[in-house]
Amino acid sequence: MPATRSGLRGVAIVRLAIIVALLSGVAPAFAFTIFACEPEWAALGRELMPDARIDVATRSGQDPHHIEARPALIAQLRSADLAVCTGASLEVGWLPLLQERASNGRIQNGAPGMFFAGEQVELIDKRAATLNPLQGDVHAEGNPHIHADPHRLLAIARRLAERMQGLAPQQATAIGQRRADFEARWQSQIDKWERQTQPLRGARVAAQHATFGYLWRWLGIEQVADLEPRPGLSPTPGHLQGLLQALRQTPPIAVVVAGYHDPRAGRWVVGQLAGGVPLLVLPAGPVDPNAPDALARWYDAMLGPLIEAATRSPRN
Question: Of all residues in the chain, what percent carry a pLDDT higher than 90?
């Protein structure tokens, strides 16, 4: 079918607009590219630079300790203006390889475009470094799962905004305004959550790994048992059996595992307790980092089941 005169006119208008934009020096969309190692940093990057292109290396359902350095990730890191990762050895098994193969000087360690969130705040549970694989995933720098503390997340947002402003000075004012807006909204969320979680003060949980260590500390929850015999090592029947006596004497409000962990060990412990203790499988990060208020939605998804478990616990 021959093109209509109006159709040809529309094509010409589009082409003319593109030429004018190029001649006037208008930057194309997504002129700034961010590589986020984890979905929480993608969500935070979206809050501060919503017009950036953001590539995410991992999903909420993936263990960030163990990721394959795929060619697609190398290509994404090669084009990145800024890489936002946790650090504290969380990505030590795969990020250095990506950096080497990407050959992008902007995102090498020490470069302005390489931002480690773990270097911006104080970490908990620092341990002596060890080369003994039987000790499991020991992070000498401290627990890397910092995004589960909203106060630390707020501090990281401030530092990340400053880094972005230095890398994209033409957007510095807009980034500063978005940071201020995020801070106000986030502080309001913190105030709300701290009111809602009063029933959790002094509660006890059994959990797998230290994924939610910062969450427990913020909420005043005590993790009384770890389903892992060593950090990062899979639960064993002997270890789980050894936990039962103490857990039966003083039952926790819940057994908690992260969404990327195999829930079978937690399910077995809950079955052995047989006292109404629930198994909570909580997301370890935002499920959809591109969704509006992705970080707040993730916190709601963690806190809601915990509050319900505390309310139903016989200790209350």
Answer: 80
